[in-house]
Each structure stands twice: as C-alpha cells, then as structure tokens.
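Supplementary Methods. Inverse-folding protocol.

Structures were first reduced to a discrete structure-token string of length 569. This string, shown here, constituted the complete conditioning input.
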C-alpha cells in the first residue's frame, strides 16, 4: 500500500540522512541530462526525497511538492521505474477476432495514452457504417490486432530460425515490430481516408501516404507527451530502435543506386520491414487483421487463413541477394485468396455505391468547415494537421459537434449532415466499367463537359454533379502481386524462388485492376427527374465508355465475352 507524503514529511532533514541517496541522484541526473528537466530534479532535491520514499512516490506526492503538470508527473515516475528497474506485467485483451491477445507492458503503456485512445472514436470503415450496421468497429481494435499479429509473425520467424541455429531476430526486434504494428494508424483523421483527401498535409514525403507520415509525427508526440522514453530504455530500446519503429510504419524504397535507405536496422534484417507495411508485394499483418476484422463485422466470408501463413513463413535469400519473408510453394492458392479477398471487400463494401455517396457527402461537409475554427477545437482542420496536440482532439465526433452547433458559419455543413441522418442521400445515376486507356485519355477531358450538359435539362449547376473514378485492384495497380512474392519448396527450404502464374493454374485471373465511372447528383430529385438524368448518362456517358472484355478479375476461360456496362435503376 502506497502512503502519500505530506509537505511536512517531504521536508524532514533526518530522512535525508537515514538512507543513501544513490538512486535519487541517478533519477535527478537522468531528468537533467537526458530529458533536460533541470527544474524537476531541483524540486526532488529541495524536498529531500530518499531512496526509500522514491519507490512509493505518487502523482499526489509530486503535486504536494509543487509539480502540477501531469506530463512532468509521467516523466518523473517513469524515470524512477527505469532507474529502479521496476517492470510491469503483460496484459491480456480478449478480442472478437483473434481471441486472447497478450501484450508486453510497454505496449500497454502506449495503449493507455490519449493519443492512442483517440482511435476508439475513429470508424475503421468510415461511411460504411451507414450501409452495414455491423461495421461499427474502430481503428483502436484494428491497431491492437495489428500489433498482436506483428508480434506473432516475428516470433514465428524467430522460433523457426532459432531451431535451425540461425540468430536472425532478437527480442528487441520483436518488441519494436509490435510497437510499429500498434502505432501504424495513429495518424488517421476523422473518417479515416476521407479526411486526408479533403485536408491534405502541405508536405508529404515521396512514397509516403498522408496518414503514415502523420502516424510518425503522432508517435513522436505520444512518446514525448507521456514521458515514455525512460520506459523504452527500461525495456532495452534505444534511439536506433525508435528510428526502426518509425521506419517500419512508413518504409522507404531504395534510391536509384539501390542503396539501403534505413538506419534503424541494417540490410541483413531487411525482411523485418515487410511485417507491418510491406511495400514490396502488399502481404503484411495490417491486411491480415483488417481482412479478418472487416469480414467479421460486415458479415462476409474471409477465405484467407493468416494462421497458415504464420505456419509456413520463413526468411530466405531471394534472387536479388536480399532476405525476404517467403512462403511455402503449396500456399500460393492461399495467397491468391488473400488478394481476391481484398478485391471482394472493395467491391462489396469499401466501394459500395451507397457508401461512396455518403463519403462524398461527408467530404463535402469537411470541405465546407476545414477553414472554420469550430467551437471546442483549438484550431481549424487544416491547421490541426501540423499540430499534434490539436490533431489529438480530431475524431469522428467532429460531425456530431457540427450537427448540433448553432454557429451560422456551419449551416451548409449541418444541412448535408441532416440529409445523411434522414437518408436523403446524393442520387446515384449509374456506373460503367472502363479500360485504363479510356480512363486516362477520355474521362479527364470530358468530366467538366459532362457536368455542364447534365445540369442543363433541369437548370442545375455543374457543381451539383460528381463523377467518380473508382479503381479496384489486387493492390499493385494492374500488376499481379503474386509475381512479387518469393516461395520455397519442401526439398530446398533455404532457396527462395518466384512462382509464375503459368506454373500454378490456368484458372487464374489475367487482369488485376478495373475502373468504374459513377455519376452522382447532389440535389434531391423527383422520380421523373432522376429517370431523365439516368437516361442522359446512359446515352451520352456510359455508351461512350462501354467496352467488351474477355476477362476481368474472374476466370477468363469461363467466359466467351463479358459486356461490362452496368446500369442500376
């Protein structure tokens, strides 16, 4: 039981003499030299804190000493834990997808911060919750799942290679990989990807996505704001390990000369950068979790079994002379299921036509308020992107604040949100499937013209229409990602080789990307008006783009021809 200290007891000189001050001196030295907090170590010395009392020091004691800032409390208490080598126990979370997940105490400390808890209030699938009632899950549980699976894959690789006498992975690697998985989505804004399309960051590094770059900034802010650096050191992590964590969240490609771009780990551990965010072929634990979790909440079948991947994954040196995570050759069918699952999720949920209508409406709301300082928020949305303290307060709750606001500046945004609540959605006028060539050459030229002509019959404005390009693929645009993977066989598990599609089956897709053009109207329409516009789209837009394919993302040998025009009334 901790006994709080009063101001009087803290200042008793005889207590100072009773116990050697070795530990207190180390705490004070760390606060001053490592954290630059000289004023805090002065406070500790002024109140004659002894080694004995140091072990039971609480936040209330620090307040009695005149240290009011909660951030300072965390830094002092975590420094004491580091100096005294006080380690907490792991914690078990019961997850609806993965079951019981055990987390390292350092991960628990990261989870129990405002910056991470914020993810509880950001929907994983954005507007899809308005279409699928079960899609109520958030970035919080997804991040827990990715952190857990990152550790499971790293540990599986370590165990396999340790048994073969290879010391490829150490405990610091595993802990770092877990933290990267846990923190990979810290940078998501309200309604996830919709926010970054409306409120782009001014400077996004080459080959980075918006939320990955903000995730790194938020991770730095989380560590600093919660005084976690001493705990990182307590569990053996140093500055290179922190760099490694951030590099795994957003791995960089090699430069034009093929030089290794990372500092956290050397090229001999290049395979570790494929666990959380695999930029080589897209097979990573991020997708393992969201495939399983999204299918679970959407009520869809998930045909990919990540447990088999964990069972058959190993590290091999590939033809490029680098070490990669490889999978057994017989698992190639499981990997085709992996990428087909991605396609199905996009086709049925992420790019659902009603979901996209709602997303357009939410983006319109964000566009109308991004330069307005909303009551309850420190800065405008655009300003918050570069201020992590302000960004921490941005969640999906933003829409509720707007909806119930009395600010006249938010009137137009409120009206759109009211339409979502009453299911008066933007009107879907149809869609068609197009080729990549048509997409690039025709759509960009014709979009403005189509909007003008659509507006004329009903005396609407061109801006009352939205022409959306929706591209669905296997994750590498029009390329087959399986060709970027490496496999090994039972007879020679040390050698990694590619596995061309022709050697797998003739009943596999030939095309790995498709693009739809959809037309929406922002105005509410009567039935006759809707029919008139749909017919105009059919005759003047969709027939222009209509094409015939012998194959899409389904087996071409089963089709003699497939007319890919689609029109929905």
């Amino acid at each position: 039981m901790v006994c709080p200290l009063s101001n009087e007891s803290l200042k008793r000189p005889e207590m100072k003499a009773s116990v050697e001050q070795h530990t207190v001196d180390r705490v004070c030295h760390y606060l001053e030299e490592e954290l630059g907090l000289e004023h805090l170590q002065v406070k500790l010395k002024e109140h004659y804190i002894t080694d004995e009392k140091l072990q039971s020091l609480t936040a209330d004691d620090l307040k009695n000493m005149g240290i009011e800032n909660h951030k300072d409390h965390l830094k002092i208490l975590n420094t004491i834990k580091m100096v005294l080598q006080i380690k907490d126990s792991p914690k078990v979370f019961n997850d609806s997808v993965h079951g019981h997940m055990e987390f390292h105490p350092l991960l628990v400390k990261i989870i129990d911060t405002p910056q991470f808890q914020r993810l509880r209030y950001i929907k994983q699938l954005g507007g899809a919750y308005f279409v699928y009632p079960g899609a109520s899950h958030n970035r919080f549980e997804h991040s827990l799942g990715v952190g857990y699976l990152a550790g499971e894959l790293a540990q599986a690789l370590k165990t396999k290679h340790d048994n073969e006498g290879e010391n490829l992975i150490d405990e610091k690697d595993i802990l770092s990989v877990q933290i990267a998985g846990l923190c990979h989505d810290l940078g998501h804004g309200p309604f996830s990807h919709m926010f970054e399309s409306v409120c782009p960051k001014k400077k996004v590094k080459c080959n980075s996505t918006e939320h990955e770059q903000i995730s790194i900034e938020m991770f730095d802010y989380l560590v600093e704001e919660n005084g976690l650096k001493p705990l990182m050191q307590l569990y053996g992590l140093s500055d290179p390990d922190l760099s490694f964590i951030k590099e795994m969240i957003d791995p960089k490609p090699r430069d034009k000369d093929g030089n290794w771009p990372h500092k956290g780990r050397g090229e001999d551990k290049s395979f570790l950068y494929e666990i959380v965010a695999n930029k080589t072929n897209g097979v990573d634990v991020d997708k393992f979790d969201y495939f399983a979790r999204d299918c679970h909440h959407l009520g869809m079948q998930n045909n990919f079994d990540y447990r088999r991947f964990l069972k058959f994954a190993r590290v091999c040196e590939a033809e490029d002379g680098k070490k990669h995570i490889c999978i057994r050759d017989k698992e190639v069918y499981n990997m085709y299921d992996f990428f087909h699952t991605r396609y199905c999720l996009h086709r049925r949920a992420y790019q659902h036509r009603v979901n996209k209508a709602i997303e357009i409406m939410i983006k319109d709301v964000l566009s109308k308020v991004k330069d307005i300082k909303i009551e309850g928020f420190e800065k405008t949305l655009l300003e918050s992107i570069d201020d992590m303290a302000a960004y921490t307060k941005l969640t999906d709750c933003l829409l509720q604040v707007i909806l119930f606001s009395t600010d006249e500046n938010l009137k137009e945004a409120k009206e759109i949100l009211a339409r979502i609540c009453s299911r008066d959605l933007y009107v879907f006028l149809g869609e068609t499937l197009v080729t990549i060539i048509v997409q690039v050459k025709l759509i960009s030229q014709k979009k403005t013209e189509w909007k003008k002509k659509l507006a004329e019959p009903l005396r609407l404005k061109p801006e009352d229409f939205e022409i959306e390009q929706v591209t669905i693929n296997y994750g590498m645009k029009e390329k087959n990602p399986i060709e970027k993977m490496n496999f090994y066989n039972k007879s020679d598990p040390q050698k990694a080789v590619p596995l061309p599609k022709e050697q797998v089956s003739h009943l596999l897709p030939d095309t790995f990307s498709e693009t739809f053009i959809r037309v929406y109207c922002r105005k509410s329409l009567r039935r006759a008006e809707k029919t008139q516009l749909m017919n105009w789209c059919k005759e003047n837009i969709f027939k222009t783009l209509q094409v015939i394919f012998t194959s899409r993302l389904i087996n071409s040998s089963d089709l003699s021809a497939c007319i890919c025009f689609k029109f929905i009334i």
